[in-house]
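Page header: ASSEMBLY MODEL / two components / 505 residues total.
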Amino acid sequence: MTLIECENLTLSYGNNVVVKDFSLKLCSGDYLCILGENGSGKSTLLQGLLGLKKPARGNISFVGLKQNEIGYLPQKTSIQKDFPASVYEIVLSGCLGSMGVLSFYGKKQKNIALNNMDLLGIGDLKKKSFKELSGGQQQRVLLARALCATKKMLILDEPCAGLDPIVAKNLYQIIKKINNDKNITIVMVSHDIGSAISHANMILHMQNKPIFFKTPKEYCESLIGKRFLGGV
Amino acid sequence: MSDIISNILQYPFIIRALIVGIFVSFCAALLGVSLVLKRYSMIGDGLSHVGFSALSIAVAMNWAPVVISIPVIILTAVLLLHFSEKNKISGDAAIALISTSSLALGVIAVSITSGINIDVFNYMFGSILAINQSDLTLSIVISTVVLILFIISYNKIFAITFDENFAHAIGINVKFYKMLLAILTGIMIVVGMKIMGALLMSSLIIFPTLSSTRICKQFKSVAINSAIISIVSFIIGLVFSYFFSTPTGATIVVVDLLIFIFYSLVGILKQRI
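Prediction written out in full:
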C-alpha cells in the first residue's frame, strides 16, 4: 500500500536549489536508507516530507497517512543538552499531534507512552531527567516519542550519530524490529553504510537529486555504491 | 509577626501593590520558563525597554500610557520574533538594536517635553505608590487570561520549548504559540512596569526560571518552583522595602539574586553528594 508519493519535488533555500526533480513512492513496511555526502540534500528532503519545508515546485501526496502522523527523530544537535525534562514528559509530548486545542493527556495517551517506553527498554527511566542520560538512552527516549506520534511511518535523521558501535548496533536492531513487528515504514538518513545495507530494503543515494534508487544488493554492485563503500 | 502584617496591611496602596505584584510575578515567572529555556531571555529585556519608551512618549504627549504601550509592545514582540526567525539579523543583536533605539527615542521625547519628572522616574525604576485602582483591575484581568492560556497550552508549550522541529512536524502551530508567548510577555511587562520599573522588570521573567533550573530536573517542577520563587521574592522584597525605605523594584531584584545564589549552591552540593 502506497503511503507517500513525491512528484518532481524541488526544495530550495532562496535561490539555492538543494533538492531537484525528486520523485519517489513509499509503501507501507518499506525500510528506506538515504545515503549521500554532506550537503547533498538528505536532511532537506526529510524536512520536505515532514512539511517543515515547503516545496518550491512539485508536490507530495499522502495516501492513508496525514503529514502530521509521521514520527520524527531529529538530528541530535537540534535538542538542548541541559534541558530540564523527565523522560516521561518528553515521550508523552509525542502524543500531542493527535490532540486538539485542549491538550491534556488522558489515559489513552499515557498508555501509548508507557507501552512505547517498555518497547524501547526505557520503562525504568520514566522519572529520570533527560540531561542525565547517556547518548544511547537519549536517542531511545526520542525514538519512543517519535513512536507516540505515529502508527505508520518513522523518519529518522542520523539516529546513531555520535553513539559508540555497540549502542548504535542495538539501536539499529530496535529500529529493524519496529519495522518488522509493527509494519512501520522507516525512512532514515545515515552515514553508516554497513548497517544501511544489511537492514534496508531500498537504498537512495542523493546528490541533490536521486542518483541511485534500488535495492541494497544492487547498490553494492553499482559504481556509486562501490565508490561510497570505499572499494574503488 | 502578626503585628508586622497588620502594620503593613493598614495602607490601601500597599494592599493594591501586593495584589498587583503577586499576580504579575506569578504570570511573569510562568512565561519566563519557556522564554529562558528557549534562550529568548533577552526578548523580555528588549520588550521592557520598548515599554519604557512607549510610556514616556505617552506621558510626554499626555496620552493614556497603557493604551499606547500595549499595542506598541505587541508590535515589537512580533517584529523581534520575525527577526530572530529569519536570521537576517541575529536575534540578540536585533534585540539590542531595538531596545537601545527605543530607549534613545524615549529619552529624547522626555527631554524635549517635561524633562525627567517623577512620572518618568517611576516608570524607569518602579514605585508602589503609583499603583491605582485601574492598574489593579488590569493586572487581575490580564493575569487571569495569561494563566488560563498557559494551562490550556501547557503541554504544547513544553513540546515547543523542548524541540521546535518535532512539534512542528507533528502538526503543532509553532508560530502561533511562539507569537502568543511573546505577546503575553509584552503585556505582562507593561502591567508590571509600574511596580518593578522598566529597567528591572525583566528580572521577574528571568530569575525564577534560572534559579529553578539549578535544582529541578523536570519541566513541571521548574514551572511550579519558578512561580513560587517569584511570589515569595516579591513579598519579601516588598516588606523589606516598606520597613527600610529602599526602592521596591530594586529590593525585589536583590532578593531574587540571593535566592539564585542559594539555589546554585544547593545545586552544586547536590551534584557533589
